[in-house]
Amino acid sequence: MKLIIVESPTKAKTITKFLDKSYLVRSSYGHIRDLPQKEMGIDIEHDFAPQYVIPNKVADRVDELKKLAKKADGVILATDEDREGEAISWHLATALELDKHFKGEKISRIVFHEITKMAIEKALATPRELDLNLVDAQQARRILDRLVGYELSPFLWKKIRRGLSAGRVQSMALRIIVEREKEIKKFKAENYWKINLVLKTKAGGEESEFPAELVKKNDEKIDAVTTLKLFAGDYKIKKTILKKEKEALDIITDLEKCQYKVENISKRETTKTPPPPFTTSTLQQSAISSLGYSSKQTMTLAQKLYEQGYITYMRTDSLNLSLESLISAQKTIQKLFGKSFALPSPRYFKNKSKGAQEAHEAIRPAYPDKTPSDLKDKLELGQYKLYKLIWNRMIASQMECAIFNSIKADISATSKASKNIYALNASGSTLTFEGYLKVYADKKSAATDALLPPMEIGDALELVSANSEGKTTTQPPRYNEATLVKVLEENGIGRPSTYAPTISTIIERKYVDKNEEKRLFPEEIGTLVSDILVAHFPQIVNMAFTATLEKDFDEIAEGTKKWVPVIRDFYEPFHANLKIKTKDVKKEEFQEKLDKSCPDCGGNLIMKFGRFGKFIACSNYPNCRYTEKTGAEKKIAEEFSEEICEKCGAKMAVKRGKFGVFLGCSNYPECKNIKRIENKTGIKCPKCKTGDIVERKSKKGRLFYGCNTYPACDFSIWNKPTGEYCPKCNSLLLFAAKGKAKCANKECDFEK
Predict the structure, then answer these.
(1) Hey, which of 118, 240, 544, 707 would disulfide with 223, CB 3.0 to 4.6 Å?
(2) Residue of 510, 697, 698 lying closest to 612 (CA atoms)
(3) Are 461 and 259 in contact (CB under 8 A)?
(4) Which residues are CB-neighbours of 443 under 8 A, at least 6 positions away?
(5) Which of 428, 445, 472 is the last residue before a domain boundary?
(6) Across the chain, what does the average pLDDT equal?
(7) pLDDT attached to residue 238
(8) Cβ count within 10 A of residue 219
(9) Phi/psi of residue 132, each to 5°?
């Protein structure tokens, strides 16, 4: 009997279905060795040698796998195909002492992109050795990130407060968000005026009206483009605008005296090509925008779909598709939609990522012939929605293009009064063949304009209306998870496996939070940390430098670079700079001095950062421990200053625990009475009709909204309720991304 070891029990269960009894499949439950938690675990003096340990919580699992390995006729390592998976296999081989038992002869490594019978059988027929270049690339990333975290984080503890952390990729992501926020604060809105025109034609004996756009005055363009240069890309506002209201009104007056004529008409057929199948980055972006899933939620659902054998491996930057999947997709398209929607030959997409693994595949359904409706009863709702998104995208990528009929009219407007000649454009299009839009249509790809009425060159037109609409330029938008992932990918920061944990980390560290529209904004402590890193450790938060390190990791994986010199080239200047900054940078630089004296000792009061935000403290600490609450906590303390404990009669005090602020008896520990402080939304619970919906926090610190009569009523929702009700099913409407509101009922698709 041969022992196959994978990471996940779900994956082990799925693979077992495809194999006979000569194979035993077991799970390692992820990593079984790692760097120690309470020390750096890297021997800097000896080429940065990592000192791996087996955590106590997995010791029994390792012993069990060792016993099974000794009894087996051979061991097959079948962890994921990426660098992380290769490293797990290497750790397994080392921790289980497989070389000692089998002398390398009965150890094999297999990889597959999908968990299907054909893929597993093919992998078993073509085993390979461990790829130590991939292992080295993973080790290099882990060691470098450990060096940064373990040396830079204590610097932040000494200068600001304990509990802060810094990381190579997370600090870069934080800086991007902070810089965007600064641009928003600097932004000054400008008023402008847009001229709207409606013309009329009597061609064919019927009157028809259509909109037109003013583009030139006497051969000079009158539209303006405002471009705001931002840290991580350009944010462009393109409008047909006139800066001065008087100029707009003068033009309207002149346009009312013009004669209009069709100067030229162009008709053409346009096509739109479907987007490629998903990579990790584009899947996260699409899931966020269309399903409202966070990066972490998306990857968790995708992992489950992969382990159950429904999709291919979900950490990839490749756009390749296997020949078998392409053939299956074509058969499925013909069966479901007819031959007119199927391509005569497969469509291939070029990988944009320079480091994309050509042997890997894009994210696709493992069996393209299994439609979402086929699996609806087998999958949880979240898994079903994500599978449908992946299936639609892959199938659409192999369908015919969408075809549109487009028409454009060039129109002149000549003023007898001023002799000015204006140029106008009018255009329209209609969809003549759905093509891939049959299964995958976003707002951008499916957008069409009404077709223009029949017109001929030389036709005279009449002005129906001309008016000026006052507008204001809008500030650059905050990033949401989708747009942040896009910026990280475009600039080569991180890799597919790092996007979700990076965003989760900066949110969990309270550096960044989300507003009601799920847009990311920096907390005050996040801005301070970012500013310190920019000022004193610019390499760590330099986009080009971070991207260069990613290229170094890629070259290590390819075997063209050794990992030790890469780490040394980074570490030595970083460590030298850290020693200087630790000595020169003073903690007082980040403490705001207040023009107030301590009531206890007369010392100066200063503003400090604590675990839960800013507070006022005495500069003579630790000799004087006087503190004052600030901000929201101060308001709460004032609001409940007269609250009396009903158990002992003492005053109640505002305290803070891991779930937020609460009222506790000041006579603690003699009296342990506590009361919850509720942040009410002003909305009655729709389930019990008696309680109120209040803001609460989960065990992991995630904000949600639930009934304040819990546990009597267990109503809860993740998004904040708007206070309105769905006109279709009468459920609560919830705040959603992009200023929208969606129905709380998962079976209802209403949104506004």
Answers:
(1) 240
(2) 510
(3) no
(4) none
(5) 472
(6) 87
(7) 42
(8) 7
(9) -70, -20
Amino acid identity of residue 198, one-letter, is V
Q: Which residues in 313-438 belong to E strands, given as ranges?
A: 402-415, 421-433
| 636 is a domain residue | no
Q: How large is the angle between the packed helices 132-159 and 563-584, nearest 10 degrees?
A: 0
Residues 14 and 73 grouped into a single domain:
yes
Q: Rounded to 10 degrees, what is the CA torsion of 103, 105, 107, 108?
A: 150
Domain that holds residue 388: 280-400
Q: Is 221 in the same domain as 207?
A: yes
Judgement on whether residues 576 and 596 belong to the same structural domain of the protein:
no
Supply φ then ψ for residue 612, to 5 degrees: -115, 20
Q: Which residues are 270's β-sheet partners?
A: 404
Q: What is the distance between the alpha carbons of residues 397 and 479, in angstroms, rounded to a whole number?
A: 28
CATH number at residue 424: 2.70.20.10
> Residues, the chain, total?
752
**Euclidean distance between CA atoms 135 and 91, whole angstroms:** 9
Residue with tokens 């507008």: 471
Q: What tokens does 695 get?
A: 């803001």
Same domain, 513 and 466: no
Rounded distance between C-alpha atoms, residue 350 and residue 364, angstroms: 16
In one-letter notation, the amino acid at residue 307 is E
User: In the sheet that 703-707 helps form, which strands lie side by side, from edge to edge?
Assistant: 679-684, 692-697, 703-707, 716-717
β-pair partners for 221: 216
Residue 740 lies in a domain: no
Residues 307 and 449 in one domain: no
Residue type, 152: L
Give the CA angle between residues 629, 631, 637 to the nearest 5°.
55
Looking at the structure, do residues 6 and 126 belong to the same domain, yes or no? yes
* pLDDT for res 229: 37
The 10s digit of each residue's pLDDT in 93-145 is 999 888 766 555 668 999 998 999 999 999 999 999 999 999 999 999 999 99
Q: ω into residue 711 within 30 of 0, thus cis? A: yes
Cα dist from 380 to 186, 300, 392, 637, 724, whole Å: 45, 13, 18, 44, 28
Residue 572, phi-psi category: left (phi > 0), alpha (psi -120 to 50), beta (remainder): alpha
Beta strand 74-77 pairing with 679-684: unpaired
| Confidence label for 194 from pLDDT (cuts 50, 70 and 90) | confident
389 and 310, same domain (yes or no): yes
Higher pLDDT, 413 or 625: 413
Q: How far apart are CA 9 and CA 663, in angstroms?
A: 44
Nearest to 256 by CA among 460, 426, 414, 423: 414
Cα dihedral 389/395/401/404 (nearest 10): -40
**Taking phi first (over 0 means left), then psi (-120 to 50 degrees means alpha), and beta for anything else, what does residue 480 get?**
beta
492 SS3 class = coil
- DSSP for 303-320, written as a single string: HHHHHTTSB--SS-----
693 occurs within a structural domain? no
- Give me the amino acid identity at 259: Q
In a domain? residue 113 = yes
395/403 Cα distance (integer angstroms):
18
Contact between 696 and 705 under an 8 Å Cβ cutoff? The reply is yes
* 371 and 446 in a common domain: no
Give the Cα separation of 655 and 632 in Å (integer).
Answer: 13
**Whether the bond into 496 is cis, omega within 30 of 0:** no
pLDDT of residue 170: 92
* pTM of the predicted protein model: 0.79
The domain total for the chain is 5
Q: Which one of 192, 260, 306, 313 is the catalytic residue?
A: 313
Whether 479 is catalytic: no
Encoded tokens for 55:
């955590």
DSSP 739: G
Helix and strand numbers (H, E) in the chain are 20, 31
Q: Identify the three-state secondary structure at position 174.
A: helix
Nearest residue to 541 (alpha-carbon basis) of 530, 526, 551: 530
Amino acid at 49: A
